[in-house]
Amino acid sequence: MGMVEKKKIIIDTDPGVDDAMAIFVALRSPEVEVIGLTTIFGNVYTTLATRNALHLLEFAERTDIPVAEGSHVTINKTTKLRIADFVHGADGLGNQNFPSPKGRQIDQSAPAFLVEQANLNPGKVTLVALGPLTNIALAIQLDPEFSKKIGQIVVLGGAFLVNGNVNPAAEANIFGDPEAADMVFTSGADVLAVGLNVTHQVLLTDADRDTLAQSGRKFGQYMSKILGFYYSYHHDSYGVQGVYLHDPTTLLAAVNPSLLTYTEGVVRVQTTGIMRGLTMFHNSNRRFEELTEWSNKPIVKVAVTVDAAAVVKLVMERLMNS
Questions:
Q1: What is residue 292's predicted lDDT score, i.e. its pLDDT?
Q2: Which residue in 55, 261, 297, 322 has the most C-beta neighbors within 10 A?
Q3: CA 311 to CA 197: how far, in whole Å?
């Protein structure tokens, strides 16, 4: 058997407690090579997302991986952003107030870095998008060929036929920049959306956190430390004895697509009114007579089911194998 070529991935991220977990899992996944992190607002503002990304790579002793800072505003230049610090802590990492990282981001912007990497490795780069989709939409604007050159875009986003988590209509990442999301879903890129309908099935329990704490392993102990704030939020908001693994599930969908099942169709994002941020899926089986804003739009994949136990097992193994 020859060596299987590792999948090149870039993680677009707003770290974030579960982003930290996804990044660590990626770094411990032999199937993939992380070739960069790009940062975006969401759980925290972009400046802090960059700082946290640099900190996480420093902690993981992987300062060889470049960090490119992304947009500070939405695609329509909105500066009033929705920041989920009440979920992740004011510092985004469970209020641990880690020292400032020594490294800094590269001079290139996130969209420019994404375009460059897609050009250097056409069809070979998987982009795992864990925050609002602003940087990806900007990359599409920067290079009209980007959606053909990027291998796959695995998006944590949407709530397909379930309620959102910002309000009943919308999931946080899509709500963060609905115009950018609609642009990405209709770009013609190979897009796979992993929504709340799937990630809410994947629960890391309180007992799992204790196992991480007792593992004596670097990443496991780090995660158990920063998870406290995130657990409190879940206990209060959802009444569950655990936390949802949104970002790690999405990352593992990129590493091992067979952990999930998918359906295919057109996805449009509602950009106005009370339903702003709603992801609407059309399964494309039904043919409508008249031309609409759904007609002749590219097909994307949407995750439907997940092997939750296998995802949790992989996350635990990789965090404790560090």
A1: 87
A2: 55
A3: 15
CATH number at residue 150: 3.90.245.10
List 37's β-bridge partners, or say none. 11, 67
Structural domain including 127 reads 7-320
Do 202 and 249 form a contact (C-beta atoms < 8 A)? yes
| Spatial distance between the Cα atoms of 307 and 282, rounded to a whole number of angstroms | 24
Position 116 pLDDT exceeds 70: yes
The set of catalytic residues is: 14, 246
Residue 80 lies inside a defined structural domain of this protein: yes
What confidence tens digit (pLDDT) does each residue in 260-312 have? 999 999 999 999 999 999 999 998 777 788 888 888 999 999 999 999 999 99
Domain total for the chain?
1
> What are 24-56's pLDDT values in tens digits?
999 999 999 999 999 999 999 999 999 999 999
| Over residues 185-192, mean pLDDT | 98
Residue type, 173: N
Helix ranges restricted to H, 165-216: 172-176, 178-185, 196-199, 206-214
Please answer whether residues 199 and 248 qualify as being in contact, where contact means their C-beta atoms are separated by less than 8 angstroms.
no
- Please state at what angle helix 17-27 crosses helix 246-255, rounded to 10 degrees: 30
Q: What are phi and psi of 7, to 5 degrees?
A: -75, 125
> Is 272 inside any structural domain?
yes
Residue 103: is the preceding peptide bond cis (ω within 30°)?
no
